[in-house]
Amino acid sequence: MPPVEAWERVYIDAETYTVSDVHAYIGCTACHGGTTSYNMDEAHTGMLEDPSADPVAGCGSCHPDIAPYAAESLHMTLEGYDTALHQRSDPANYETLEQMETYHCNNCHATCGDCHVSQPDSVGGGLLEGHVFVETPPMSQTCTACHGSRVKNEYYGLNEGIPGDVHLREARMACVDCHTDAEMHGQPPFDQEAHRYDAPQSPTCESCHEDQIGVGSGIPEHEVHGTDLLSCQVCHSTDYTNCTNCHVDRTEDDVPYYSVEEHWTTFLIGQNPDRTTDRPYKYVTVRHVPVDIDSFSAYGDDLLNNFLNRPTWSYATPHNTQLDTQQALTCTNCHGNDDVFLTPDKVAPAELEANLPVIVEAAPAFPEGYEDYLATQEPAAETPAEGASGGETSGDAGFWGSDGSATEDETESGDAGFWGADESNAPAETPAGDESFWGDAPDAESTAAPSGDESFWGSESAPAGGEAVATPPATDADFWGG
Asked: At what angle do helices 79-88 and 94-104 cross, to 10 degrees?
């Protein structure tokens, strides 16, 4: 979106609004307050810039089934931030941390109007469509405006040399195609959650790929690994962004800003520190948490005085799904390969104990005798060249709806309203801490790292012998013979 004057950002297209939006039947003062008067000073006295800052008062009379839940949703309450920061701190510091959040978090997250009427301040603010209420928030003007430096760059393929997520390149799916309105509004079963991973897993890969997952799928790799051992991202994510040592502060004019010491792209597998029925995986992708012990020192001393109460590496769900990835190209690109696991040497020495629930002592070894099973299977597909836009093997093109990535013209043509306006105004970085907001650092009790292959394969012993297996086993237990 090109730069606009300040008055243009709040310009109401009265003709479009009154013709196409039912909200036009509601008087301005009914939502925004103020006084009906030709005197501008009187008219704006007591006016609310965003009536939906209180969803129940601003929207509840017409949306009683949604507004009370939205008022308690993670987007509104920042409970995900508080869950993480409070565990690293203590009650004496909570008020100071809340003051910090009012400068560095609240403007990004997210009232009803911030999704359905206007853009977040991080991309300049202003109305989306001249005060017309937008039922489906445009992705680039709302979702990725806040979740930009990681989610947007991964999903769009903006990290150098790394293709965008296949769901965007091939299926052209927006955030709301997977993240439902119930999830965004905090409606059941997503209500009363302290962070994202408290709620049922949503979206799930099984929602669209039920027949392609686990035993019975006919896919050898899926047959062997089942549904409890690995999250789908372990095999189907590629490199993603990690950040370190974020610091927040304000200028002399009270303008908030932040800085990050460094960031890099990598792919690492760690232990799942909080296995549940919804997320039973033993191994998951992990990302470095960008908070530092001195992140908020501009607001007070020793605010994170229990910094190591939580791991500094956490369960993550990168938005960079690919069919073919380097770690899935051959079995030994994962088995016996410490490079793709969060081993102790990759963790700061002072933080080793805090990260024991996540660290993998060594990559699981290749199981004895498994070569014979592999000999009965088709060769693995080749991984696409780095930076290639298409990685799908033949046979899946019909599933994704195309045998190649959508071109720029295809993406933009006729979809400007869906994807949002020109993204030239989107920030290169997002305010740090969205991992805490979404709950990428779940609570965890320290647990010992696995001692060997046995815990990886989930049985007392790996298969032995050299007898070939003609067909995939009906269950994991049948495969291992126990």
From this structure: 140
CA distance 193 to 442: 12
319 CB-side CA count, 13 A: 25
* Under 8 Å between Cβ of 269 and 283: yes
Single out the residue of 260, 225, 267, 144 nearest to residue 457, CA to CA.
225
Handedness of CA 319, 323, 326, 332 (dihedral sign): positive
Q: What is the DSSP string of 118-163?
A: B--GGGT--BSSTT---SS--TTTTHHHHSIIIIIHHHHT-STT-P
Residue 400 buriedness (CB in 10 A; 0-12 / 13-18 / 19+): middle
Answer whether the bond into residue 379 is a cis peptide, omega within 30°: no
In DSSP terms, 373 is beta-bridged to none
User: What torsion do the CA atoms of 325, 151, 389, 260 make, to the nearest 10 degrees?
Assistant: -90
Task: Supply the pLDDT for residue 359.
Answer: 98
| Separation CA 404–CA 300 (nearest Å) | 53
Interstrand relation of 256-266 and 269-271 (parallel, antiparallel or unpaired): unpaired
pLDDT at 4: 65
One-letter identity of residue 305? N
Do residues 222 and 211 lie in contact, with contact meaning Cβ atoms separated by under 8 Å? no
Counts of helices then strands in the chain (DSSP H, E): 24, 5
Check residue 456 and give its pLDDT.
Answer: 40
User: Which residue in this structure is represented by tokens 């005197």?
Assistant: 39
Q: CA 147, 153, 157 angle in degrees (round to 5)?
A: 145
Q: What is the chain's alpha carbon radius of gyration, rounded to the nearest angstrom?
A: 25
Q: What is the dihedral of CA 156, 162, 167, 168, to 10 degrees?
A: 30
Instruction: With CA atoms as reference, report the closest residue to 127 among 205, 21, 25, 280.
Output: 21
Write down the pTM of the prediction. 0.72
Strands (E), 272-414: 283-288, 313-315
The rounded distance, in Å, linking the Cα atoms of 164 and 159 is 8
Residue numbers of the chain with a pLDDT score lower than 70: 1-4, 6-7, 108-109, 371-482
CA distance 91 to 305: 11
Question: Is the preceding omega at residue 463 within 30 degrees of 0, hence cis?
Answer: no
Quote the pLDDT of residue 248: 93
